[in-house]
Specification:
By secondary structure, the chain is of the alpha/beta class. The protein has a single domain, classed as Rossmann fold, CATH 3.40.50. The protein is built from six helices and eleven strands. Strand 7 and strand 8 form a beta hairpin. The protein starts with a strand and ends with a helix.
Length: 248
């Protein structure tokens, strides 16, 4: 079985994001970029399935400009066998990303597609669900545990009421949550080996996909600064302050 893993280039989660003064976007000048953390967990799970003999090949795919090849090489250094870049310089929204991934699926014919449940830059949580709908295959979202036996996958999902375990037929789309695993540390020798692994580039236009925006972001605004707190002497004073501020 071949496993396809989608990864996205995002601002590293340790970086404090700054909005540009004109509100047109986020300042990425000189900022560290990394693989989306949820996607990194998806890749780790794919590699573990391969090491357990459940898969024969792991392919990572990313949609973006040449800069995303850095993250694809990280995926190869973690242990993926091949990488595919769908080249486009414009920002890609979830529906266009799902359509592009579907074209790659049609070429690669994977038995399983793993994605992070969402990207930490836009938090849309849409691409996996849209991809499953376009592909007309089963889906399981927010996976915190995954096992594969033959043409079936058993997935434990994190839902509002607790945990839900479902069984789905393969091929399928599974999006992963934080508690599924902890990604491995990439070693220097693996980084050097990754430079010799194949990385194919597809052009978005060649896939016949219109990546135009479905919606337009008008303006980015940083969150308001937290107001300075005050010390109160008693519960009565606290209650009065809350009333003065219209909170109770």
């Amino acid at each position: 079985m071949k496993i396809l893993v989608g990864i996205k280039r995002v601002v590293d989660y340790n970086v404090r994001v700054r909005v540009l003064p004109n509100g047109s976007g986020v300042d990425t000048d000189g900022v560290k970029m990394s693989v989306n953390p949820f996607d990194e967990i998806a890749l780790e799970e794919a590699l573990r399935l391969k090491e357990a003999g459940k898969a024969t090949e792991v392919v990572v795919v990313s949609i973006g400009g040449d800069e995303c090849q850095q993250q694809l090489r990280t995926g190869l250094a973690m242990g993926a066998d091949r990488a595919i870049q769908v080249n486009i310089t414009a920002a890609v929204q979830p529906l266009a990303a799902a359509r592009a991934l579907l074209k790659v699926i049609e070429q690669e014919q994977p038995g399983l597609v793993l994605l992070g449940k969402q990207a930490i830059d836009d938090d849309n949580n849409q691409t996996g669900q849209m991809l499953a709908g376009l592909w007309n295959r089963p889906q399981a979202t927010f996976a915190s545990k995954l096992s594969v036996e033959g043409d079936k996958a058993t997935v434990t999902r994190e839902v509002d009421a607790g945990l839900e375990t479902i069984s789905i037929d393969l091929p399928a789309v599974i999006t992963v949550d934080l508690r599924l695993n902890e990604p491995r540390f990439v070693k220097l020798p693996d980084i050097m080996k990754a430079k010799r692994k194949p990385l194919d580039v597809l052009q978005m236009e060649q896939l016949g996909i219109d990546a135009g925006p479905v919606y337009t972001i008008e303006k980015f605004t940083p969150p308001p600064q937290r107001q300075k707190g005050i010390m109160v002497e008693s519960a009565e004073q606290l209650l009065q302050e809350l009333k003065n501020r219209g909170l109770v």
